[in-house]
Amino acid sequence: MAPNDTQRPKAGPLPKDPEKRRRELQRRKLERQAQLRAQRVAETRKRTLIIGGCVVAVAAIAAGIVAVIPSSKPSKSASADTASSSPSTAANTPAAAKANYTITPKKNEGSWKTEPPMTIDTSANYTAKITLGQGPVTLKLDAAAAPHTVNSFVFLANQHFFDGVYCHRLTTTGIYVLQCGDPTGTGSGGPGYQFKDENLTASAVKGGTYPAGTVAMANSGPNTNGSQFFLVYKDSPLPASYTPFGTITGGLDVLNAIAAKGSDSANGQGDGKPVEPVIMNTVTASKN
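Above: the chain's sequence. Below: its structure in token form.
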């Protein structure tokens, strides 16, 4: 990140010679431009980490580093929640590895301008099935507690929005989630619309932990839900800022096997794309 004004050395006087003065002014201009570019890159990276995007968000890194949390996915605002985590051991952090593949975007990002109309029956039971290349993951959706979220998820599933989309983010340190639902694979894509948060007072997440088996929305601040969601495969310390809208009823073993392969993390903190490609071949949702 570019240093702030208090860290930047003071510029000396300009030379009197016109040509030297011109060159010095040009040099200082290029230096300022480079500093601004570096700052923009740093800010973009921060927004991406806040998102996906999310997921998702790292409440606290294993070594005790405090991290900023808001999540995914376009950022409108960023809160600075902090949480401490207990030190982890090498045993529960997969060895660093490289993901030797490129995520291919699916060309359906931003397909809708507004949230879909409410068509689900909030008194009914809804289930979903995510068929990953590694195996199926089944979900029970909570339409009564998170009607807008479940309605959107069912709508997108029925539109085949998720089919062929990579799960672009895996965290294996501090929090333990697989984040999916971004057709661009960058952590900043979505369906084109956003909708409000729901179910944030659920007893399951009020204590600052999203239990293993939780399905929740990634976001980039309050009321910025879109299509990105995360699957919690191990209890994860997170503030109650991410709409929980279902539970995993089958496939936790599949998620843990994916996590065991590790994430491609440039910073060594267990937060990057899965080492092994994870693609949602199909996502279906139905009323039962």
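The helical segments are 18-50, 147-158, 203-206, 252-261.
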